[in-house]
Specification:
About 40% of the residues lie in helices and about 20% in strands. By secondary structure, the protein is of the alpha+beta class.
Length: about 130
């Protein structure tokens, strides 16, 4: 049987003993055949200032990779330069652009500009997908 349990149900996990196959919680000790213990997630706290987008994640990953490479090769890491671009589709063939902390598209733009933005968003997607997945 597979069972999911939250800390609200059994209390926080105090310890895990993989040799005895037990998990000690605030309220009881559990004997298990197998367990997948997932710690509290902190990504939202760590990256709270950055938007949650593919472009932003790609930018942050490159900063992290640069820092890891620098640490492993005893080199100097490039300065962190995180950025974000977000295309919001407003119809089947139109979009507006938001970058970093300001809205780049302007009120009153004509449909030709929205169409160009839409075409650019398709090119951007192809480029970032190739950058991330090869």
């Amino acid at each position: 049987m597979i069972e999911w349990s939250s800390t609200g149900l059994l209390g926080a996990i105090k310890s895990v003993d993989p040799k005895k196959l037990t998990i000690e919680t605030q309220s009881e000790s559990l004997a298990v055949d197998a367990a997948c213990v997932i710690p509290a997630q902190r990504a939202g706290t760590i990256a709270s200032a950055m938007p949650k987008s593919a472009f932003s994640a790609n930018s942050q990953a490159k900063v992290a990779a640069s820092a890891i490479r620098a640490e492993l090769t005893d080199a100097t890491a490039s300065p962190a330069a995180c950025s974000n671009t977000c295309w919001s589709l407003i119809s089947a063939e139109n979009s507006v652009i938001e970058a970093v902390t300001k809205f780049m598209s302007q009120t009153g733009e004509d449909s030709a500009t929205w169409k160009t933005n839409f075409e650019d968003s398709g090119k951007w997607y192809a480029e970032i997908a190739a950058d991330m997945f090869g």
